[in-house]
Amino acid sequence: MTANLEFYQGFDMRFFENSGTAFHDSITNGTIAGNTNSGQVVIDEGVFGRDVFGGANLGGIANNMPTAGSVSMWFYYADLGDGSLSEFWNFSFDYVAANTFSSFVLDDDVGTLFQTYVLAGSDHITGSDFDDGLLGYGGDDWISANQGDDYIDGGSGADFMDGGSGNNTFVVDNAGDTVTAGNGSDIVLLQLSLAGTSYTAPDSIENVRNVAISGAWLIGNTLNNALIGANGAADTLNGRDGDDVLNGGSGGGDAMYGGTGNDTFYVDNITDFVTDNTDTVTAGSGEDEVRSSITYTLTDAARLDIENLRLVGTAAINGTGNALGNVITGNSAANTLNGLGGADTMRGGDGNDIYYVDNSGDRVLETSASGGVDTIRSSITLTLSSYAENLQLLGSDAINGSGNALANRLAGNGEANLLYGRDGDDTLTGNGGNDALYGGNGADQLLGGNGEDWLEGGTGQDRMTGGADADMFVFRAGDLAGSAATCDRITDFSHAESDQIRLNAIDANSANGAGTNDAFTFIGTSAFHQIAGELRYQVINGNTYVYGDTDGNGVADIMIRLDGSHALVQSDFLL
Question: Which of 237, 176, 245 is nearest to 210 (CA)?
């Protein structure tokens, strides 16, 4: 008599060796082997290094079985903790002829080890209440696993497999196989060629995976299914009802139909076809998500009812939404995310991400200041969300943009934009149009570009470049320092272009007390006369410095540097 004992992957494999020759019966390398002699079995268990033997409770074993009968076997192992014997497992079987078994039962006395038994022919196998591996091989088998997380493979025949409760795995390799299960999350491993046909998940089975070489047509049921295609094959997956997960596998152009429910699709091939409804391209019920390892868009006609897109993997890929309110999530690389129509939520994650915003309901969520340098390109007025660094205004509308507490780069479009840096050392670029640039706090750089621009640096040591046309450089109380090392700087002041320096928001005479706003008196290049409110300039080393004395002590309290040598006149200022 020979029958294999196998231990399934994920569990420890234990080989048994014969410790004696008295009875010439043994378990060797996972095989029960016997000769023509009858008797009890004496075994040495190689893993633990202790003898395992039958004792008084070990029943007789019929090693040579020419006629019908029954066999019962008990195995024991020595516990390493205290040396006492503990029951390992026991089984019994009936036989109708030599080497042909009709039934096999695993007892549930011990549940610490994974039990596997293999029978040839048409078998009736019953598992224990623990984690069993039940293998039928040839013949039309009837296998009932009872409780536990079981692995059931009926073999090549038309088998009936009942997993019972627990999270069970079934191997289906015959169109006549029948699978059923109770509570738990179960999976069918499909090893069946399905050319021109389909496989529908049985009513009690949640998950199906095609492990054959060829493509398969997998159909879900009313449960929350996971349908997984074969790598390299072109699979067709239809989730039907429930919140399904559809994954065509790597390689191959797969077709995935979500049906109703909140479905999730995995895409890794540009030819993968995804839709949420098998009949129409209108939005089905539920909220669905595509998870893609390639650049992907939801705008194709078949994808117009998919709400969400998540980029996976580590490649620098991009994601585009559709007219719905999408949730688009990037991966750890540099992604470009564009929600298109609808009120979209975009999360870039790590990497230098680019976002396109076109709806007042769009939200950009960056969760970490270390998550790359991110840019929002917006066709509407926008304030940067936390942890987003840069803003670029798009389109032909006169829209506005504001920064946050970071060092932002804000850029206008060709129209009249208002840009406000707020906190941080910001760079503001107006580009075309008559722009208004406000630096806010920090050492800011303001670049007006073309057009008649308003440049106001705010507090901090700012640098301003007006660009072409008549620009206004604006200063307020508290904006200006009184030393050359820390003063604000104008790089391209031009009397010829009618540029002006606006100081009329500063009280020129602080001695008059709070609430007054006296004007400056321009005295050209003359020295201060120790009179509060005087404004003068001086050219030093090729650059022009403007000084203002607000307390009348003859020392400059405010200072502005103009790059280059200029002969300033009163009309260059608003005093």
Answer: 237
Residue type, 110: V
Whether the predicted model's global pTM rises above the 0.85 cut: no
Residue indicated by tokens 């960056």: 366
Residue 224, number of CB atoms within 10 A of its CB:
18
Q: Compute the mean pLDDT over every residue in the chain, rounded to the nearest whole number.
A: 79
Same domain, 164 and 16: yes
- 434 and 550 part of one domain: no
Q: Are residues 417 and 510 in the same domain?
A: no
Q: Six-digit token pair at 218?
A: 């997998």
Give the list of residues 6+ apart from residue 21 with CB closer than 8 angstroms, or none: none
Strands (E), 319-462: 319-320, 327-329, 336-338, 345-347, 354-357, 363-365, 375-378, 382-383, 390-393, 401-402, 409-411, 418-420, 427-429, 436-438, 445-447, 454-456
Residue 29's region, left for phi above 0, alpha for psi from -120 to 50, else beta, is: left
Classify residue 519: in a domain, yes or no: yes
Same domain? For 397 and 511 the reply is no
Last residue of a domain, one of 184, 217, 246: 184
List CB contacts of 474: < 8 A, sequence separation 6 or more: 454, 455, 456, 502, 505
Clarify whether residues 414 and 531 are in a common domain: no
Residue 436 lies in a domain: yes
Closest CA to 570 of 535, 538, 531: 535
Considering the domain architecture, whether residues 427 and 535 belong to the same structural domain is answered as no
Domain range spanning residue 381?
373-469
Task: Show which of 184, 203, 225 is a domain's final residue.
Answer: 184
What tokens appear for 254 in the block? Answer: 């797969």
Contacts of 471 (CB under 8 A, 6+ apart): 448, 452, 453, 454, 455, 497, 499, 500
Could you tell me if 526 and 410 lie in one domain? no
The amino acid at residue 367 is T
Give the residue, 234 or 521, on which the prediction is more confident: 521
Residues 31, 37, 42, 44, CA torsion sign: negative
pLDDT class of 272 with cuts at 50, 70, 90: low
Q: Binning pLDDT at 50, 70 and 90, where does residue 193 land? A: confident
Is residue 463 included in any domain, yes or no?
Answer: yes
Residues 513 and 420 in one domain: no
C-alpha torsion sign, points 389, 393, 394, 399: positive
How far apart, in whole angstroms, are the C-alpha atoms of residue 258 and residue 6? 39
Give yes or no for residue 320 having a pLDDT over 90.
yes
43-67 CB burial, b ≥16 within 10 A, e <16: bbbbeeebebbbeeebeebbbebee
Contact 287, 307 (CB under 8 A): yes
In a domain, residue 298? The reply is no
Structural domains counted in the chain? 3
